[in-house]
Specification:
284 residues; alpha+beta; globular
Length: 284
Amino acid sequence: MEFAKGHGTENDFVVLPDPDGALDLTPARVVALCDRRRGLGADGVLRVVRWRALGEQGPSPEPGVEWFMDYRNADGSVAEMCGNGVRVFARYLATHGLLVDGPEAELLVGTRAGVRRVRFAGGDGARGAISVDMGAVEVGGKSAAQVAGQLLPGIAVDVGNPHLACITRRPLDELDLTRPPGYDPELFPDGVNVEFVSPLGVGGEVAMRVYERGVGETRSCGTGTVAAAVAALHDAGRETGTVDVRTPGGRLRVTVGPGRATLTGPAVIVAEGRLDPAWWAAQQ
């Protein structure tokens, strides 16, 4: 059974090629794969499956979209979308010759948050930045996250999955994210990804830390950078613009237009190998 390991600004994933939907990818197996001591170690798992082969495990296939990114968080839960993951997913397809029209063409990827349009910089699927149309972005109501007994105000941002983006002038490295931030469960009944973001600076740059639901603090979060950019623009009295987001794992660029956003950044396949069949069978 083959696997690959990749990352987008150090937000890392195990990639499982399963074009015909034959794998029994249980939550226990996802947890084992993502464990950094007894498994391969990752923030999540990307299953590469043809949409028509996904069956009842996903939404109904859309015409003209071959591949579906079946994304799982490190705790085994199913997630709607992952902005860094979809770039790694696209890189895997490109480097394995799975793009029917080649890297010069626009790639359509199915996700539980809808179809995402992907473009390779310079038409080169093996290297260079990858841009993803992240779809509709919706700004919700005000809320707050609780960290170490202190409330940090923020706003709800829907990027196909739920976020609470908190603009703060506190030094981000002083925040204790070893425990999950508190949040309003009535506003976020399915949990929430929480971003802590510096105010928009000169040149349109912000810094961000993120606590992802089902994972913990990660080095980066693609949908989180979009939420951070939208919140920073909103805090500055703007609805559109381009924001460079500096995460602990690297830099990403977010362009926010009317109701939509584009995320651009790197994606790297680090290694490939085979899982031991006995180990896989034991992870039930």
